[in-house]
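batch_manifest entry 22 of 60
target: tRNA 5-carboxymethoxyuridine methyltransferase
source organism: Paraglaciecola agarilytica NO2
requested by: lab member K.T.
priority: normal
notes from requester: please return tokens only, no post-processing; we will run our own comparison against the previous entry in this batch. if the run fails, retry once and flag.
--- input ---
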Amino acid sequence: MSSERHDQNFDSIASKFEQNIYGTSKGRLRHELLHHRLAQNIDLPAIRTVLDAGGGTGEMSKVLLDEGANVTLSDISNETLSIAKHKCGNSASLSLLHSDILALPPTEYDLVICHAVLEWLSDPFSNIEKLIGMTKIGGYFSLTFFNKDAQMMGNLLYGNFDYVKQGMQVKNRVRLSPNNPLRPREVIDFLHQQKVTMTSMAGIRCIHDYLKDPTMQQSHYEQLKDAELAYGDKEPFMWLGKYFHIIMRRDA
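--- output ---
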């Protein structure tokens, strides 16, 4: 991890992070929706090489390994890499790199994924440029990030008016709370300046986090997932997904 960039490192709380994300309906739903969107827009069995940048505990890496790809998983946390190695069963098709994204060697891949990472980085747009450059021409880059507009909407619905008025800045950050959420329009405007074509855009968890009765997140999970799939890539719902997902193809 670069001391100058101050990107978030989950060493010492990797197990807690794993449980808080994938041990809940929000983590399960996010993962399943992302997998669905990838399979819907990319011929995954034809993908031979994958970079899972900031891939953490390897949840998506395992899916892509099962599809037959050779996967390189990078992360700045040794603890999350250890969890990923165990989860993926010491697969010979998995390579682990202890590195931040900007320090990765300039290898190109058929598919690059960077899911729920940008919001933990001090310089997200430099990381986007780096990852586009690591995508083969004609290959795909899947990008998911925490949606600042949805974060604001959620806080307004909870009545946290002073917090929103103060720009949603707090003196003492919670380690599992993303510290640099992004607005989808800003990311899309940036991507229009790059040599990519956006092939898919969708909100992730457009409904789940706004349910009036949170117990329905579990009791009505399959109906909730069906609704997320039905409306997540449609206006206006997509813009209020807690995460925003973009799949793009590198043109040159």
